Amino acid sequence: MRVNVRCFATLRELAVSRATLELPAAASLADAWDALAADYPALTPHRDYVRGAVSGAYAQWDTLLTDGDEIAFLPPVSGGAGPTGLTDGPIDVAALEAAVAGDGHGALVTFVGRARDTADDGRSVLELEYEAYPEMAAAVLAQIALDAEQRWPGSSVAVVHRVGMVPIGEAAVAIVAAAAHRSEAYDANRFVIEAIKERLPIWKRERFADGSEWKRPGA
């Protein structure tokens, strides 16, 4: 059978962005990884840190594949919901706030993660670039927002993450949580940003004067 493979961030640089693999019947996700690593041996040491996805959903390594599946190999990553998703342009924070703030919401907590000009190690950052697996990331963002709303009933959450180049000083991610009371709004907002760092298939490249590197957001 034939399957299509996509690699992201560091894995793409070590191997290829897209490839087509010919696999035997009843091949698994692990078999697809092994076949790709055979062509690109630099991938091999990364096996323990990679997550696989099949048709836009995270999958176990023993998941059996079918002809025509789209597979993604992802390096570590750092919905009733309001507006959620990805954008390749500036984020309209005011529009997100207006979308989720209802008359019964006494608290509105907004978090904006901005591109800054200094890295954690003190080096000057020229610009940031974010790469996502878009077919999967939009669904993951919606699920994170829905999880927050279910954990804090009566709340409403909106979250948008920017992809592509993000100029210094502009928003890379915006999260708005509205709830009846401030404690729920604060907690829901923090839950979303922590879930993004853990679950969202998106990667950040900091461009320095002396080079660049990939890292997961929040790392």
What would you say this structure looks like, in words?
- By secondary structure, this protein is of the alpha+beta class.
- The chain folds into two domains: 2-74, Roll (Ubiquitin-like (UB roll)), CATH 3.10.20.30; 84-215, Alpha-Beta Complex (Aldehyde Oxidoreductase, domain 3).
- 28% of the residues lie in helices and 34% in strands.
- The protein has five helices and 13 strands.
- The strands form three sheets. A five-stranded mixed sheet has the order 2-1-5-3-4. Strands 6-9-11-7 form a four-stranded mixed sheet, with helices on both faces. A four-stranded antiparallel sheet has the order 10-8-12-13.
- Strand 3 and strand 4 form a beta hairpin.
- Helix 4 packs antiparallel against helix 5.
- The longest helix is centred in the middle third of the chain and has 18 residues, at 134-151.
- It is globular, with a radius of gyration of 19 Å.
- The mean pLDDT is 88.
Name the descriptors.
globular; Ubiquitin-like (UB roll); 4-stranded mixed beta sheet; 5 helices; 34% strand; Aldehyde Oxidoreductase, domain 3; alpha+beta; 219 residues; 2 domains
Short description:
This protein is an alpha+beta fold.
Tally the structural domains: 2
Count of DSSP helices? Answer: 5
State the CATH superfamily name of the largest domain.
Molybdopterin biosynthesis MoaE subunit
Strand order of the largest sheet: 2-1-5-3-4
Output the structural class: alpha+beta
What share of the residues lie within helices?
25-40%
Q: Beta-sheet strand percentage? A: 25-35%
CATH topology category name of the largest domain: Aldehyde Oxidoreductase, domain 3
> What is the helix/strand order?
EHEHEEEEHEEHEEEHEE
> Rg from C-alpha positions?
19 Å
Mean pLDDT: 88
Low-confidence stretches: none
Q: How many individual β-strands?
A: 13
Largest sheet: 5 strands, mixed
Based on the coordinates given, report the CATH architecture of the largest domain: Alpha-Beta Complex
In CATH's first tier, which class of the largest domain applies?
Alpha Beta
User: End-to-end span in angstroms?
Assistant: 38 Å
Looking at the structure, what is the overall shape? globular
